[in-house]
Amino acid sequence: MKRNISVSIIGGSGYAGGELLRLLLFHPNVKVLQVTSRQFAGQLVSRAHPNLRKISNLIFCKQDELLKCDLLFLALPNGISMGYIKEIKNKAEKIIDLGADFRLKDKNTFATWYKKQHEAPDLLPEFTYGIAELHRSELKNAKYVACAGCEAMVSILTLLPLVKHKIIESKNIIIDAKMSSSQGGNTPSMSSHHPERHGVVRSYKPVDHRHSAEIEQELALYSKNIQVSVTATTIEMVRGLLVTIHTQPRPGITEKDIWKAYRSCYGSEPFIRIVKEAEGIYRYPEPKILTGTNYCDIGFVLSTRESRLVAIGAIDNLGKGTAGQAIQAMNIMYGLDEKTGLEFPGLHPI
Ligand SMILES: NC(=O)c1ccc[n+]([C@@H]2O[C@H](COP(=O)([O-])OP(=O)(O)OC[C@H]3O[C@@H](n4cnc5c(N)ncnc54)[C@H](OP(=O)(O)O)[C@@H]3O)[C@@H](O)[C@H]2O)c1
C-alpha cells in the first residue's frame, strides 16, 4: 500500500512521541519522515524507545534539520509549542499538538489556569479540539488540532451523554482520577525516584486541576453552567487512567434512561465500549486491559438510596489519552477510515 502522508514528530524521545512512533510505523498510509530530539540527535530512535529495535532505522534529528512534511505532530512538554509554533508552522500543511497550549479557546482562561500569558493567542481560534467523538465534522477540514489532556479526554467522554441527555445536575460533579506514572513524562524528578514513587497512593492535585477548564469548555457545548471538580491521585501503575465520577442524578432518572443516553451517543462509536456487567471480575472499566489500545471503556452505577450516579471511565493515557487520539484525528483529517492503525485489542492477561 502507498504510504502517502509524510509526517514528522517534534519531541519524539518522550513517552507520547514514542507511542506515536510505535503506532505510525505500522500505519498503512503514513511515512514517518523525521523525529526530533535534542538529547538523542544522531542516534537511532530505538535508543529512546527500545521496543522499536529492528523495527525502525530512523535516526533522531535536531529541530533545525526539519524538512517540509504533510503533518507535524508536536509532542513537547506543556508551554513549549506556543513559543515554537510560528517558527515551525511553515514546515507542514497541518499540525497536531499533543500538549496543552492550544486546548483552551480563551487566552484569559489559559492565563488563569496555566499562570502565564499565551504566546500565540491569535492562533487559538484556528485549533480544533482533538476528541473525534465531539468534533468529527470540524476535524475533517482542520488544519490545526489540539489534542485533549488525558484526564479531560476520559472525563469528557464519560460525562457527555449524561450532560447532553440531562441525566445529571450540572453542579457537584466530582471527578476522582487515579493516575499512572507515565503521565508525568520522561524527565526524572525526586517524586518519580523509585523509592519515592513505588507503591504510592499519593494525592497529587486534590482540587483545581487544570483539566477542569477543558472539561467545562467542552461540556458547555451541551449544557451551560457545568461545573466539575477534579481530584487526581497517583497510584502504582505505569500506564492507564481511571476516573470515578460522582454525580447527582436528576429526579426520576432510571437505569434505563442512562443506558439510553450512552447508547444513543456511543452506539456507533468504534472506540467507546459500555462496560457494565452483572458478573465476573471485569464488571466495570479497568485501565489495565486497555494498555496499548485506543479504547475508552465506560461504566456506571445508579444508587437511588444515595441519590447518586457514579460513572466510571478508563483509558490508556498514552493511547486514547494522547497518541491514539492524535492518530484518530489524523485519520479523519485525511479522509481515512478512523480505525486505521488503531485496532490493537490489548492483551489479556497482562
Ligand atoms: N504522558 C502522557 O500520558 C500524556 C497524556 C496526554 C497528553 N500528553 C502531552 O504530550 C506532551 C508530551 O508529553 P510526554 O509525556 O511525552 O513528555 P516527555 O516524556 O517529557 O517528552 C517530551 C519531549 O520533548 C522534548 N523537549 C523537552 N523540552 C523541550 C524543549 N524546550 N524544546 C524542544 N524539545 C523539548 C524532550 O526531548 P529531548 O530532550 O530529547 O529533546 C522530551 O523527550 C505533553 O504536552 C503532554 O501534556 C502526555
UniProtKB/TrEMBL annotation:
InterPro entries, per database record: AGPR, AGPR_dimerisation_dom, AGPR_type-1, LysY, NAD(P)-bd_dom_sf, Semialdehyde_DH_NAD-bd
SMART domains in the record: Semialdhyde_dh
Source domain of life: Bacteria
UniProt record, GO biological process: L-arginine biosynthetic process; lysine biosynthetic process
One annotated GO molecular function: NAD binding
Keyword 4Fe-4S in record: no
HAMAP family associated with the record: ArgC_type1 (MF_00150), LysY (MF_02083)
Name this protein carries in UniProt: N-acetyl-gamma-glutamyl-phosphate reductase
Organism this protein belongs to: Candidatus Gottesmanbacteria bacterium RIFCSPHIGHO2_02_FULL_40_13
Lineage, opening ranks: Bacteria, Candidatus Gottesmaniibacteriota
